[in-house]
């Protein structure tokens, strides 16, 4: 629904109430919505708020306003009233003019630069294991939100904070040292991140054996976990790392290097990228100056054991440790320092952290501390919290070797796409290279769309087979629609420079398609403001459905005259462009042919 007609209807409804009932109604009380599919009309005015002025039934009030609007607004062709809802039908000429003046412009749906800078931090992997299904949702969500914000006019910085230090990293290093026999990615044929992940799992298995042995000797579970030789060795290795021990640092650099090469391949296959990498090994000490600043300002307090805390009980939270008694940092110490570093470097107006909902409390505390410290930029911080991803076979688990590996899942998606595409005979006339490109496009499109169509806050069940259904609410359905439109345009040798013309009448299918196309800018705006690719994803699906209905009900290539044919071809070209742009913002490619 184009904004100009909305503004016109709001203004004219206010005038109608003034003239009919001698009353002033604030614009906030004039509610417009798209007419529900089961009723005739395009835009619905909710008339219940007016009945207190009209002193009439909702039906009669709607009829009064409808008659007035029809007589005074030339874009209105007709109206009907269902209870307290005034359903307005817009004229053929309104829709034709909208296509000719707005939709056909190459700039339709684009927003000017808004002069604001925003950082989107996502991925944040650990360098002790490969990326898994949860990381896939994180990466796709972060990348898509960044692209949507860019399209909405922001200057966007895509950031990745890599967790490359700590006890978990030392566990992989120690296990490789003890059990690896010099194995490398080259000698094993494994991607570097998979190789390092293998030793993280080995550490866990050997550690459990030691715990069980100590428990048999009479130690409690807690005692055994602390006293197991492996964990003590890992802790000693961490201390050596923090003391800059040459051998430990060399091993750390080697194994991290393997992991980064592996990550790079996964990121490439996922189609995500970053403008800036931060590494915890460089940032973990940064927060200590901020702790001192907080102590000086009286925001933090020191306990007898020398540890530093903040009391957030007045805000409904609890007391939070921000620095240990021995002066070592905790996770939030580092996050405080990194937040300051990021702002100092980029001076962004807003900063989004794409992190799972298990960290909701952490980010509440982090943002609150920064506000209490008087950081003006803390108001612009936002935690984009998302739910877990499950597979039909059950919840993923890390550390035990049963994690749903990102690379394995993507390979499975490509195989599923290949099988389904060949079953449907959609590869005829394609060479091997084209087929390979198509399987990749469909498989990755299916995965991305399925994960992005769900509201980020919701937990979701990912079904690989369902995601590749060419008839369902899926990426491949939308991709196929785009390829279908491109096929029509090719057959017609469509020339975009030929003017649209002015058909004498439009069918309901054409009107519905134009109305949906006109909504693209407002959907993009809502997606950007709510950091929700799901809105754009679901819009693309509804648009594809409407195009298919139009395609089946109206002849395009064999239209009754050239004006109608040309108008329908232009409508098809606009639909292809907007579908393609929606999918691009979701990180999904659309094929030209299928």
UniProtKB/TrEMBL annotation:
It is found in: Cytoplasm. GO terms for molecular function: arginine-tRNA ligase activity. Residues 4-90 form the Arginyl tRNA synthetase N-terminal domain. Its EC number is 6.1.1.19. Transmembrane segments: none annotated. Keywords: Aminoacyl-tRNA synthetase, ATP-binding, Cytoplasm, Ligase, Nucleotide-binding, Protein biosynthesis. A motif ('HIGH' region) lies at residues 125-135. InterPro entries: aa-tRNA-synth_I_CS (IPR001412), Arg-tRNA-ligase (IPR001278), Arg-tRNA-synth_N (IPR005148), Arg-tRNA-synth_N_sf (IPR036695), ArgRS_core (IPR035684), DALR_anticod-bd (IPR008909), Rossmann-like_a/b/a_fold (IPR014729), tRNAsynth_Ia_anticodon-bd (IPR009080). The keyword Transport does not apply. It catalyses: tRNA(Arg) + L-arginine + ATP = L-arginyl-tRNA(Arg) + AMP + diphosphate. Gene3D superfamilies: Arginyl tRNA synthetase N-terminal domain (3.30.1360.70), HUPs (3.40.50.620), Isoleucyl-tRNA Synthetase, Domain 1 (1.10.730.10). Its main location: cytoplasm. Monomer. NCBIfam families: argS (TIGR00456). HAMAP family: Arg_tRNA_synth (MF_00123). Belongs to the class-I aminoacyl-tRNA synthetase family. This is Arginine--tRNA ligase. The lineage of its organism: Bacteria, Pseudomonadati, Bacteroidota, Sphingobacteriia, Sphingobacteriales. The gene is argS.
């Amino acid at each position: 629904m184009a904004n100009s007609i909305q503004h016109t209807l709001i203004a004219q409804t206010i005038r109608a109430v003034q003239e009919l009932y001698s009353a002033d109604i604030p614009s906030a009380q004039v509610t417009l919505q798209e007419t529900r599919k089961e009723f005739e009309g395009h835009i619905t005015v909710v008339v219940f708020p007016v009945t207190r002025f009209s002193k009439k039934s909702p039906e009669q009030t709607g009829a009064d306003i409808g008659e007035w609007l029809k007589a005074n607004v030339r874009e209105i062709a007709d109206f009907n009233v269902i209870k307290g809802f005034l359903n307005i039908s817009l004229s053929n000429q309104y829709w034709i003019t909208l296509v000719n003046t707005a939709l056909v412009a190459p700039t339709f749906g684009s927003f000017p630069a808004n002069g604001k800078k925003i950082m989107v931090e996502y991925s944040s992997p650990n360098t002790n294991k490969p990326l898994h299904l949860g990381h896939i949702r994180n990466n796709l969500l972060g990348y898509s939100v960044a692209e949507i914000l860019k399209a909405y006019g922001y200057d966007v910085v895509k950031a990745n904070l890599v967790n490359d230090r700590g006890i978990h990293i030392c566990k992989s290093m120690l296990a490789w040292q003890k059990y690896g026999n010099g194995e490398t990615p080259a000698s094993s044929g494994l991607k570097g991140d998979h190789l390092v992940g293998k030793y993280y799992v080995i550490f866990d298995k050997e550690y459990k054996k030691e715990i069980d042995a100590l428990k048999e000797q009479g130690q409690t579970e807690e005692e055994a976990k602390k006293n197991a030789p492996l964990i003590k060795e890992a802790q000693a290795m961490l201390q050596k790392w923090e003391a800059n021990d040459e051998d430990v640092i060399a091993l750390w650099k080697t194994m991290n290097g393997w992991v980064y090469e592996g990550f790079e391949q996964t990121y490439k296959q996922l189609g995500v990228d970053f403008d800036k990498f931060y590494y915890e090994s460089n940032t973990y000490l940064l927060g200590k100056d901020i702790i001192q600043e907080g102590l000086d300002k009286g925001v933090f307090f020191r306990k007898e054991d020398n540890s530093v805390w903040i009391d957030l009980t007045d805000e409904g939270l609890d007391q939070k440790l921000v620095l240990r008694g021995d002066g070592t940092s905790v996770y939030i110490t580092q996050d405080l320092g990194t937040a300051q570093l990021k702002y100092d470097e980029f001076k962004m107006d807003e900063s989004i952290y794409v992190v799972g909902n298990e960290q909701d409390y952490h980010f509440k505390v982090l943002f609150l501390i920064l506000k209490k410290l008087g950081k003006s930029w803390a108001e612009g911080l936002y935690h984009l919290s998302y739910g877990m991803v499950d597979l039909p076979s059950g919840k993923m688990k890390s550390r035990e070797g049963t994690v749903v590996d990102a690379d394995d899942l993507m390979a499975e998606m490509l195989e599923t796409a290949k099988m389904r595409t060949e079953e449907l005979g959609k590869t005829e006339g394609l060479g091997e290279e084209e087929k390979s490109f198509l399987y990749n496009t469909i498989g990755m499109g299916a995965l991305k769309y399925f994960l992005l169509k769900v509201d980020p806050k919701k937990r979701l069940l990912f079904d690989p087979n369902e995601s590749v259904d060419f008839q369902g609410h899926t990426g491949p359905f939308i991709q196929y629609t785009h390829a279908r439109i491109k096929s029509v345009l090719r057959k017609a040798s469509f020339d975009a420079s030929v003017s649209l013309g002015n058909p004498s009448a439009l069918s309901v299918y054409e009107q519905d398609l134009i109305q949906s196309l006109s909504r693209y800018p407002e959907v993009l705006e809502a997606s950007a403001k709510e950091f929700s690719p799901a809105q754009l994803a679901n819009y693309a699906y509804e648009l594809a459905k409407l195009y298919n209905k139009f395609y089946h009900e109206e002849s395009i290539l064999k239209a009754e005259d050239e004006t109608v044919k040309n108008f329908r071809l232009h409508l098809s070209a606009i639909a292809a462009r907007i579908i393609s742009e929606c999918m691009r913002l979701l990180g999904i490619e659309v094929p030209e042919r299928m």
